[in-house]
Amino acid sequence: MPETTGPLPEVLRDPCELRRRLDAARAGGRRVAFVPTMGALHAGHLELVRHARELADVVVVSIFVNPTQFGPREDLASYPRDLQTDLRLLAGLADLVLAPGVEAVYPPGHATTIHVAGLTEGLCGASRPGHFDGVATVVAKLFSMVGPCSAVFGRKDFQQLQVVRRMTVDLDLPVTVVGRPTVREPDGLAMSSRNRHLTPEERRRATALVEGLRAAAAAFAAGERSVAVLDGLVRAQLEGRVDGIDYVFVGNPETLQPFAGPVPPGGTMLAAVAVRVGRTRLIDNTELGAEDLVVPAGGHSPGTQD
Amino acid sequence: MPETTGPLPEVLRDPCELRRRLDAARAGGRRVAFVPTMGALHAGHLELVRHARELADVVVVSIFVNPTQFGPREDLASYPRDLQTDLRLLAGLADLVLAPGVEAVYPPGHATTIHVAGLTEGLCGASRPGHFDGVATVVAKLFSMVGPCSAVFGRKDFQQLQVVRRMTVDLDLPVTVVGRPTVREPDGLAMSSRNRHLTPEERRRATALVEGLRAAAAAFAAGERSVAVLDGLVRAQLEGRVDGIDYVFVGNPETLQPFAGPVPPGGTMLAAVAVRVGRTRLIDNTELGAEDLVVPAGGHSPGTQD
Question: In terms of residue numbers, what domain contains A113?
Fold first, then answer.
């Protein structure tokens, strides 16, 4: 991935210092946009940061591997961390990077959790209990620290995006949550910090996710609306190629629940998958009828340009 | 209670309209202080509003009987509501009153709850499951709507004050939470919106709460630090006079847990009670070593002047 050029962003460790800096910027009439990340940045993150730049005068990126959204048997310890590489990637793109220590975010005595009911129960929530409580809580905290007008999230973590949207509306936070299309590798694999854990052989098999979603997208484009058929098309691509299927979900993108009746004319459907390839958990999704998953041979997805 | 004079506050029903108005005030460099209430205002509320005036340029009072903090067998339906009287009491004291409908605060699809662990488990939390989740959530929402520098709460609801403080710190909300002494009737009864439900005979018995707390305060002032002795002194005043004791708590004011060891020299102790008198639930508390509960015969508590 080519590194961008320009000045390195300034790194702040102290959320209170960040707030003072941004209060001064806001008092001067400057608008703040925010991209929360866990670091290990890739082209998908950088697209979010570029979009943030279009929305505001000051772009803040947080880099914080949030322990409360990892389960006890998940990959918190092995989650990739490389702040210096991340900062070089953000050169010329972000103005400020908030990179707090765990103790600055969760000082002793921290006791507050935000729970979003409903949206968090299925999909990744079913196999990752507490994950979305951790996400909602840290995002609310980061929103308070940064005070952005807009915050930009990737649609690759679609359930996370919907949970954050719901939490933001429900808590009346004065933040516009923006979801951006998934950025993909030339062969269609969704960009993810966890892709770097894949062996070359696993990397080849990992394209099964996007191929399953493409099969569903092609059928949807041809008029197919049966959840069972679409689900079967996704699974047909996964079976024999991935090492375990956590879920295949085809349903309502707003509620993340199965459709109660037929899909309305003009309505979209979410197709989402979570699998294990080797020891790595991978997710992907597409909103059928709302985005184009066709990838030109050898080229980038149109989504990356959007 | 004498009504104050001065212009009636402006009433806004729409939280978004309030935010626009206050954004304009903030952009002009004016500071906002906030007093959240459920209406049925009494002299205790008015003291909070007067204090808010000392802290900021714009004083906002919310009047909202929050349904999510009432249990299914509690007094939501009978909670006193009289907006016009409340507004007259706020004349000359508050600039803006936010009085939203339930649907403006909890539109369809609302799914987010804030939970503060630990502090919410004992005292009122034990007999009012979910109560403090409702309080924490609505206070966070109101803080977002109003965007105050300071928010003023009464110490009569001491557990609520501690929960709000914890939530505010934990979610990094840029709000200073201020706790103010309990305002009392001439005979010492803590001011409460629920006092108006008491019959004259119940009203006489209701002074048992403050008399129990005074007995503990007198013993504490004389050097007593035994939780069992102080608890017994409170109960001795309550028994035979109230119609049911929910709890008597003597313990750590910060954690709302029993002390693990002896009270440290110079340390304070919280004495808190919840009882039923007739069909009315009443609470009261005092922080032993931190405030003076002595009430001059026929006069007001020093607390009301503080």
Answer: 10-180
